[in-house]
Design goal:
Blueprint: H1 3-16, H2 23-45, H3 50-62, H4 66-74, H5 85-95, H6 111-120, H7 133-156, H8 159-163, H9 178-185, H10 198-207, H11 215-224, H12 226-230, H13 244-261
This protein binds fe (ii) ion (FE2).
Fe (ii) ion is lined by residues 63-64, 85-86, 122-123, 146.
Length: 265
């Protein structure tokens, strides 16, 4: 058995200690395995050697390991209402020794040393300037792979099933603020602190598209079609999802993403 199979088994063994019937846990296992596969694909597509692609896969496998304890302790995946899941995961792995359950046998010699920063940084708004070039490259691969699958998760899984808390904490309606739309115009992610409504949350998910680093990531997101679904103004039955004002703002988001990417979605 190579280290990839060993590590996938170790991950599933770890995850199975948590309630697999819990829909939050179920979706997180699927998300993790998809992010691991996407990470390896992206690493190969940008020309990294096979052992680096294996290292990227390993980071994908471990990146959300903190989600299981987060769900057990708090019953939610909303970091702002509980804990920063990336920090929790890195603390469990490198503080409590959870990393010892995984094998780095056929991975590059520096793979374990980069794992901690790459995992801690996977959910941050941006990467620090001080990061060395090789660690940055792996962090970018993981962040692109994570965002790619988040489009699927957001577009295909009901809110409560992927987040675990009720919608009640978000204002149900209302157009996005000028501050949020300024992020759209500047082609950047929307900081958590300025998202106040369900619609602003929706826009901020779409804005992750601006932060994709690699062409292969943009191409994959376009091919998978989940972002197009998020930008839709009507549901599959043709009924409007948003108010007229919201729909117009969503059209702006779509236009700006198309401008940034230089493609039609
Ligand atoms: Fe995450």
């Amino acid at each position: 058995m190579n280290s990839r199979e060993q590590n996938e088994r170790a991950f599933l063994r770890y995850a199975e200690q948590y309630d697999a019937k819990n829909v939050l846990i179920f979706h997180k296992i699927k998300h993790t395995l998809r992010v691991a596969d996407l990470s390896a694909r992206y690493a190969e597509a940008i020309g990294l050697p096979g052992e680096d692609a294996a290292c990227a896969w390993f980071y994908g496998l471990l990146h959300d390991i903190g989600r299981f304890e987060q769900a057990r302790r708090y019953g939610t995946f909303v970091d702002s209402q509980s804990v920063d899941h990336a920090e929790l995961g890195a603390d469990l792995l490198f503080g409590d020794g959870l990393i010892g359950q995984f094998s780095a046998e056929d991975l590059p010699a520096d793979c374990l040393a980069m794992a901690e920063p790459v995992i801690r940084l996977h959910n941050k708004l941006s990467l620090p300037e001080t990061l060395d070039e090789r660690t940055r490259r792996f962090a970018e691969i993981l962040r692109d792979a994570d965002k790619t699958d988040i489009f699927r998760v957001v577009a295909s899984i009901p809110f409560e099933d992927r987040i675990g808390s009720s919608r009640a904490s978000f204002a149900e309606t209302g157009e996005a603020s000028a501050e949020v739309m300024a992020c759209v115009a500047e082609h950047r992610c929307v900081p958590r602190a300025i998202r106040h409504s369900r619609f602003e949350g929706h826009i901020s998910h779409c804005c992750m598209a601006f932060e994709l680093v690699f062409e292969i990531s943009r191409r994959t997101v376009k091919e998978e079609g989940w972002l197009r679904l998020l930008l839709a103004e009507t549901d599959p039955a043709g009924h409007p999802i948003w108010s007229e004002g919201e729909a117009e703002q969503l059209r702006t988001v779509r236009t700006e993403i198309e401008k940034a990417w230089g493609v039609t979605l």
